Every structure is written in C-alpha cells, then in structure tokens.
UniProtKB/TrEMBL annotation, chain A:
<protein>
    <submittedName>
        <fullName>ABC-type dipeptide/oligopeptide/nickel transport system, permease component</fullName>
    </submittedName>
</protein>
<feature type="domain" description="ABC transmembrane type-1">
    <location>
        <begin position="118"/>
        <end position="321"/>
    </location>
</feature>
<feature type="transmembrane region" description="Helical">
    <location>
        <begin position="9"/>
        <end position="30"/>
    </location>
</feature>
<dbReference type="GO" id="GO:0055085">
    <property type="term" value="P:transmembrane transport"/>
</dbReference>
<feature type="transmembrane region" description="Helical">
    <location>
        <begin position="124"/>
        <end position="145"/>
    </location>
</feature>
<keyword id="KW-1003">Cell membrane</keyword>
<feature type="transmembrane region" description="Helical">
    <location>
        <begin position="198"/>
        <end position="217"/>
    </location>
</feature>
<dbReference type="GO" id="GO:0005886">
    <property type="term" value="C:plasma membrane"/>
</dbReference>
<feature type="transmembrane region" description="Helical">
    <location>
        <begin position="253"/>
        <end position="274"/>
    </location>
</feature>
Automatic annotation (TrEMBL), chain B:
<dbReference type="GO" id="GO:0015833">
    <property type="term" value="P:peptide transport"/>
</dbReference>
<keyword id="KW-1133">Transmembrane helix</keyword>
<protein>
    <submittedName>
        <fullName>ABC transporter permease</fullName>
    </submittedName>
</protein>
<dbReference type="InterPro" id="IPR000515">
    <property type="entry name" value="MetI-like"/>
</dbReference>
<feature type="transmembrane region" description="Helical">
    <location>
        <begin position="238"/>
        <end position="265"/>
    </location>
</feature>
<keyword id="KW-1003">Cell membrane</keyword>
<dbReference type="Pfam" id="PF00528">
    <property type="entry name" value="BPD_transp_1"/>
</dbReference>
<feature type="transmembrane region" description="Helical">
    <location>
        <begin position="152"/>
        <end position="172"/>
    </location>
</feature>
<feature type="domain" description="ABC transmembrane type-1">
    <location>
        <begin position="113"/>
        <end position="317"/>
    </location>
</feature>
Length: 331, 332
C-alpha cells in the first residue's frame, strides 16, 4: 500500500511536466503578451517593455524560460533563483510584486486562510458538496425504497436534469427565477461575508454532483436491497429502520463515499464559470482573468494546481476503496 | 407433483412458441427494436429530429433574417406576454420577442441550432474513427502503442479539459486556423484532441476482453490476418459500447460549445446573411446575460433549447445503453 502510494505520487512528476509543457507552448503561442493593455488604455512604452522582459527573463529563448520555470535560473547578480522544483510558482506579471502562491494562497491582512482566493474556491466547493450530499443521499435512498412511485419519478426527473443540463444554464434559470422574479436571494453582494449570497452559487455548483450522488445512491441501494443478508436481517425480525440504516445504507454508501474526493476536486476546479458569473473572488475567476491578460506564470501555476488536485482526487478513490473494502488489493 | 411437472412443460412450450414467433434479428436491429420500445428514448429521438430539421431548414423556417435589425422594434417581449418588465408591448410578429437591436430571437435561436448540431455530431464522428482505430490497435497489439496510449490518457485526464479548450481558443483564435469556418474548425479540433481518449479506452477494454475468446482463437487458427481479425471479428463485437459512448459524447460537445460561446470564445458571430453559421446558442446566452433582469426572454429561449437537446441526447444515450448492453441497465 505504501509502495503503491509512493509510485502514484512519483507518477505525478511526469504528468506535471507534460501538463506544464503543453500549457507553456499554448500560452506562448497566443498573440500578445503580459504587458499589453486594452486598446482604450495607454500602452506600456516599448523601452519599458524591453526592460520588463529583461527583468523577468522573458527575452530569453523559450526553452530556457521553460527550464527556468521548472528548475530555476541564475539572476543577474549570480544568485540562483529556484523554480517549480522548490514550490515556487513564479512572479505575477500583472499584479506586480506578488508571486503566484501569494495571490492564490495569501489571505488579506488579518483574515485566515479561507479568505484567500484558493480558500474562497475551497469554501464554495465544500458548501456545494454539502448541499449535494445532504440532498442527494436521502433523495437516492427514498427513491430506491419507494421504487416506481411518484417520489421516485420526481427524484429521477430532477436527477436527469441535474446530470445533463450544464450548470451555467441551470444558473441562468435559477437567477431569473429567484433573483429577478422572486427577489429571494441577492446576486450582487456587497461583501462575501453575507450568508445569503453564497446560497445560489453553492446550489448551482453542487446541482450536478447532487444529481450524480442521488443516482449512485439509488442504484447501489437497489443492488444491496436484493442481497441475502438484508433478507436474513428481515427474517430474524429486525425493525425495518434498523435494516435500512444498519444493513443496507452502510453497504450501499461505499461507492458514494469513494466518489466524494473526486467530486470535491471537480467542484473546486470546475467552478470557474460560476465564479465568473457571480464575480466570485476565487481561484477560477483569477484563472480566467489571467488567461485574458497573458499572465504567463499565473496561467501555469493555476493549471498545475488544478492538475495536482485532480490527480490526488483520483488517488484518493483507490485508497478509500482499500480502506472501505479490505478484499480489494492494490498491486 | 404432476401439476408442477405439467406447468414446467407448459412453460417450456410457451418459451418455444415465443422463440419461433420472434424473427431472428442481428444485434443492431435488436437494439433498435428495444430502443424504440423505450418511451423516453423515442421522445428524445423526436426532439433531436425536430432540432435537426429546424437547423437544416432555418433559412425557410425563420420568420426574419437572424441579423436583420428592425429599428424601433427592439426590447420587445415575447408575443404571449402582453407587457414585458421593461414596459414595452409585445408584437405578434416576433413570437419570442426581440433583442436590444430589434433582431428576432426565434430566428436567431433557429440559426443557433445549426452550430450546436454540427458541434454535436462532427467532432463525435472524428473521435469515433480515431478512437476506435487507436483503441483497436493498442488493445490488440499491446506493447509500446498500448503503453503510449495509457500514458497519454493519464495526461489528458490530469488536464482540466474545459481549461484546455479555453486556452486553445484564446491562443489560436486570431491565427489562420482559428478563422477557418468562423472558428468552428478550431472548436472541432480542440474537442477532438481531448475526447478521442475516452473512446480509445473503451475500445481497448473491449478488445482486451474479446481477444482471449475462443472465436478469435479459431479465427487465428484458420490463418486469418491480424487486420481481418481486428475489423471483421473484434470490431463488430465491440460496436455496442462504441455506439453508447458516442451517444453520450454528443451532449458533452454541445455543452462545451455553449460554455465557450458564453465565455465569448466560441463561434465568431457572422454578419454575412449568406453564411451558414451565423450565431450560436452560447453567443446568444452571452448577449442576453447583460439584460437578465430587463429582458429575460433573450436568455430563456436559448437556455431552454440547450437543456432540451442535451436532455434528448441523454435519454437516447440511456436508451441505447439499456438496449445494447442490458447488463448495465439502471446501474449508472
């Protein structure tokens, strides 16, 4: 098991290298650079641009820039500046004086980690996840227990919508219904410390996951319900509530639990459309902005964080399987 | 005792009668038959057919040209609402209202369907061919091809795919490739680059399980060439999963196009009325979202269309899965 984890983690290294290579090629083939401004604004003059390029090493050949990003490079004074291998994601070209890790992980003065950009995205992801699990698991259980009744059909209908309709379309419907017509929730927050402004983004983000959780719970409950041990439990006269909670639920939730890790990763990494729609101060919106601004190291850093999160989530599936089901062995 | 025996023979006779009564069908006809008995799938197929026809004949069906600016007729609410939230009275000529410039929403949505249909089908067709061939070879031959495929898969799965599309679109939008077919060519290729891996993996899995079967061994014994075994014996037997995965790929493609259009990265809106692709649902959503309070109908019609078509494909995909691979029924 230990060896398996180590091997999977080592396998991350080539994946990160290839992902960063592709990102590097793509973003450098995009026209324009980090010093360009909107056509309406005053442009940075060529001389300053040259100095900036020199300062950040953007005048060097591309392969050298890539090596400098991954391993590091010598500064002008001869000191060595370490790159990605030391966990350094590079300086931002648009928010001068800040490194990428500061932009993403450093909270504003006097606040805790959860007020950083990454923290905001994590919080939104966790709230969405909570919504998904709290609503999805009971919905799945009820529709399995009452299979082919109206409760089952209603839940299946919502589940189908949640799985197939993309979340930004659901967002449009919900914003029009709850914000424009009913005025129940506010979507233009004065501050993200208010509770009610989180409701809509979290529900929309979690809707798809909620649907998938409900469907998975339903399917696995239906499978478990036909097992012999459930019949045995009933046969020995156990109360129905106990049969459901102690025998069926415990076993049917195994696949659901294994899905939680990847779902959370998907929610944190997949939130950038919702973040852009709601002007949310998270990592996803920063990423979309960075792409538009050609903030090279920001694009690179965020992509790598996303890739690592996804890879770790996939690893967590295999590990939870082993923890929950001792019969499964990893090779 | 005798009654039990009698009823057993009776059942056997009944089964025999049934077998005689059912004409022999091959896998695909059988699948089609079962698909058509699935009510949700039939509804899905009808919706898809309506949208395909609407997209093909948009130029005959649309009451107005999608780029015709009707001056003084902007901001009109749909005909079934008397007065919109902005105080304008509706005009029965514009069934679903007009946008800020006075362009007919219904006509624009009809033309938008063209993009969604093409984006749904063309990349799926490409990845189907590429993924099947690579999956067949990698599963059958094994060795370095197989290793390479699995490593590529690892990378593609690690790369957040929507982000890849966004980077691709922003990067190459203003180059020569990005301008071919109003940007659709770039969209097709980025979608295909990422998605063929899924098909290849499914096919590879099928091949791995099939190639140990007796009938493949028999084919090899009588001296069939590798290519013949692959395309005559293995491919037809793995068609079921291939069809299922392609039906499930289509809605993903349509959604991606809508998202990219919504971010302003999809099709380049055309102003030439002779163009086949003029606008897309994603672009319509983008145009509409600035007026989400004053003119919600600008968003509602395209949003409903995206939801309907995606739901329709999901129904058909689920139906196909149940029809072609009954073991999977209701599992996913």
């Amino acid at each position: 098991m230990g060896r398996f984890v180590v091997r999977r983690l080592l396998w991350l290294i080539p994946v990160i290298l290839v992902v960063s290579g592709i990102t590097f090629i793509l973003m450098h083939s995009a026209p324009g650079g980090p010093w360009d401004r909107d056509l309406s604004a005053r442009q940075v003059d060529p001389n300053t641009q040259r100095l900036l390029n020199e300062y950040y090493g953007l005048d060097k050949p591309l392969w050298r820039q890539f090596v400098a990003y991954i391993i590091g490079d010598y500064n002008k004074d001869g000191s060595f500046k370490c790159g990605l291998v030391c966990g350094n994601l590079g300086p931002s070209y648009r928010q001068r004086g800040l490194t990428i890790q500061q932009i993403l992980f450093m909270p504003p003065e006097g606040k805790n980690f959860f007020y950083s950009r990454f923290g905001y995205s994590i919080r939104l992801g966790v709230y969405a996840m909570l919504f998904a699990v709290i609503l999805g698991v009971p919905a799945g259980i009820i529709s399995a227990l009452k299979q082919n009744t109206w409760a089952d059909y209603i839940s299946l209908f919502i589940v189908t919508i949640g799985i197939s309709v993309p979340n930004f379309v659901i967002a449009i419907f919900l914003i029009i219904i709850f914000a424009s017509w009913l005025h129940v929730v506010s979507i233009v927050p004065r501050s993200w410390d208010q509770v009610d402004v989180w409701i809509l983004p979290a529900i929309i983000l979690g809707f798809g996951t909620m649907a998938r959780t409900a469907r998975l719970t339903r399917a696995s409950m239906l499978e478990v319900m036909r097992m012999d041990y459930v019949r045995t439990a009933r046969a020995k006269g156990m109360a129905e509530r106990l049969v459901i909670f102690r025998h069926m639920l415990k076993n049917s939730l195994i696949p659901v639990v294994t899905m939680l890790g990847p779902s959370l990763a998907a929610l944190v990494t997949g939130s950038f459309i919702i973040e852009t729609m709601f002007g949310f101060p998270g990592m996803g919106r920063a990423y979309v902005t960075a792409i538009g601004q050609r903030d090279y190291s920001m694009i690179m850093g965020t992509t790598l964080i996303y890739a690592v999160l996804v890879a770790l989530a996939n690893l967590s599936v295999d590990l939870t399987y082993v923890l929950l089901d001792p019969r499964i062995r990893l090779d | 005792m005798t009654t039990a025996h009698d009823s057993a023979t009776e059942t056997k006779n009944r089964i025999a009668a049934l077998e005689v009564a059912t004409p022999q069908r091959d896998l695909l006809m059988d699948g089609l038959y079962r698909l058509l008995r699935n009510r949700a799938s039939v509804v899905g197929l009808i919706i898809i057919a309506i949208f395909v026809l609407g997209a093909l004949f948009a130029n005959f069906l649309a009451p107005f040209s999608p780029i015709q600016i009707n001056s003084g007729k902007g901001f009109l609410p749909p005909a079934f609402v008397e007065v919109g939230p902005n105080g304008y009275k509706s005009d029965p000529a514009f069934l679903f209202g007009t946008d800020t410039l006075g362009r007919d929403v219904l006509s624009r949505t009809l033309y938008g369907a063209r993009v969604s249909m093409v984006v749904g089908f063309v990349p799926t067709f490409i990845i189907l061919i590429v993924g099947t061939v690579i999956g067949l070879i990698s599963g059958y031959r094994g060795g370095w091809v197989d290793n390479l495929l699995m490593r590529v898969t690892d990378v593609v799965y690690a790369f957040p795919d929507l982000l890849f599309f966004i980077i691709m679109m922003i990067t190459l939008r203003d180059t020569f490739i990005g301008q071919m077919l109003n940007g659709l060519f770039l969209l097709f290729s980025s979608l295909a680059i990422v998605s063929w891996v899924g098909v290849a993996r499914v096919v590879r899995g099928q091949v791995l399980s099939l190639k140990e079967k007796e009938f493949i061994e028999a084919a090899r014994c009588i001296g069939a060439r590798d290519s013949r075994i692959m395309f005559r014996h293995i491919l037809p037997n793995s068609l079921g999963p291939i069809i299922i995965i392609s039906a499930m790929t289509v809605p993903g493609m349509i959604i991606t196009e809508a998202i990219l259009g919504y971010l302003g990265l999809g099709l380049r809106p055309s102003t030439n009325p002779k163009d086949f692709f003029i606008t897309s649902w994603g672009s319509l959503l983008l145009e509409g979202q600035t007026a989400i309070n004053a003119q919600p109908w600008l968003l509602l019609l395209p949003a409903i269309c995206v939801s309907l078509i995606v739901l329709a494909f999901t129904f058909v995909g689920d139906g196909l899965r149940d029809a072609l691979d009954p073991r999977l029924q209701g599992t996913q």
